[in-house]
């Protein structure tokens, strides 16, 4: 369990992280999302002792990171996939990282295989694609067989196969009891495997809940198309009489605050044939963009 | 993934000290697996052999012997040792591996100690290579070996010079953290600024300039030596203390900054 308590960091007059408090549970994947400049990377750097917080604390089962006796065996972190000497081979990069933590050399070969880099082990990292660097950086994080993974934008540069592999890997890691804390700007991607989300904006905590809780309040709209235009008017009338909010959208009707089964039942009761009947809802991405919109430092027009 | 929770326990001063051999091993792997280490070694050997061979071939108005000239290239060897040790830190900052190291070993003094020992090793190794190839260059240039009774003492002071130059480079690298800025700053001070200061300072002050004191450890009789400078010259031990003092100050400053600064 990671416990982040009133974490705060300022640079001059700018507050990068503003009294953040949240937990990361064991056995779950926790996504860390927010717009550019929200303070995600600063928070993650404070979580591994690279940046000194002005106040607040981060504890791993009650112990600050910098007080851990074997940090690599508790927390595996990737904060920047470019962190490797371009002239050093993948194997030697991992050998040096393992040696510093007193980790046996056989783990180097094991993690190279685990991330699928065994055939590139003797190539210099300078010739690696960003995706290969991501895999090598993840291999470095896994060297200590840690209980916690902290990953900052780990899917950057990965191809679709790589992204699927990473998603499966992190889900399996959590299923085995590990804690995964992963930041990403790809909200749709996170939605596919995160159990919980920590949402930040302008350094402040906006939400720390399960994905299910965040999407539970989203409004559902039923889209229905009848076989004939006359039947569309008829169905609209019946739906309105049933107290539903109906809007016409070309050949379709959009029914808010209802369900597919309810609309279907009304159409069936009046003998109206339908060509299309579907539900749409705000995506997790819409929900999160709604949460962070007010705090976004850099927004698209 | 390890299921035991016994790994989640506190570090202590004793456990930090126990991790020093691991940190040294990591430093050794780092310097032995990049090409710049080999390049600096080759350059040191090349300069060593060429400097003494050229001296033997070109200087005809003095009686030169190998036991006197083998140390001539050590001044440049010390420059290269300082550069190599600057890169021990700045290369890690530039490529982000310092952050990786600090997450693996939060006890920053352990990293500083490991790098200091490594820097001393780099300085001694390059010093031996430079003097060894200098010896060979003298022989290739046709010089007699000469009186060998002082060779061990000369080599010892010279190795102390290259080792301390290396530590000084490490300290400068930790303070400046940028390869080009640290190397150019050190070279400008060493080869330009200090010579200008030496020219305008009284001998009683200029003898405390860092590289003037360090270079004096080589015991080479240079043209700039005058009766006045010789009269106030420090002993080799005093020269070593002056140069070592500057190296220690740079290292302490770098260590304090490493503890205080955030690492990106």
Tell me what the structure shows.
The complex is a heterodimer of chains A (about 300) and B (about 260). Chain A has about 300 residues and is of the alpha/beta class. Chain A is built from eleven helices and 14 strands. Chain A has two domains: about 1-215, Rossmann fold (3-Layer(aba) Sandwich), CATH 3.40.50; about 220-280, 2-Layer Sandwich (Alpha-Beta Plaits), CATH 3.30.70. Chain A has helices at about 40-45, 70-75, 90-100, 105-115, 130-140, 160-175, 185-190, 210-215, 230-240, 260-270, 285-290, and strands at about 1-10, 15-25, 30-35, 55-60, 65, 75-80, 150, 180-185, 195-200, 205-210, 220-225, 245-250, 250-255, 275-280. The radius of gyration of chain A is 24 Å and the shape is elongated. The mean pLDDT of chain A is about 90. Chain B has one domain (about 20-260). Helix content of chain B is about 75%, strand content about 0%. Chain B has helices spanning about 15-20, 20-30, 35-60, 65-70, 75-95, 95-105, 110-140, 150-175, 180-200, 205, 210-215, 225-230, 235-260. The longest helix of chain B is centred in the middle third of the chain and has 33 residues, at about 110-140. Chain B is globular. Chain B starts with 12 loop residues before the first helix and ends with a helix. The chains are: A alpha/beta (about 300), B mainly alpha (about 260). The interface of A and B includes residues 49, 70, 73, 86 and 173 of A.
Category by helix and strand content of chain A: alpha/beta
SSE string of chain A = EEEHEEHEHHHEHEHEEHEHEEHEH
Low-confidence stretches of chain A: none
Which CATH architecture of the largest domain in chain A?
3-Layer(aba) Sandwich
What kind of sheet is the major sheet of chain B? Answer: none
Overall pLDDT metric of chain B: 90
Whole-number count of domains of chain B: 1
Helicity range of the residues of chain B?
over 70%
Q: Mean pLDDT of chain A, nearest integer?
A: 89
Strand content of chain B: under 5%
What is the CATH superfamily of the largest domain in chain A?
P-loop containing nucleotide triphosphate hydrolases
Q: Compute the CA-based radius of gyration of chain B.
A: 21 Å
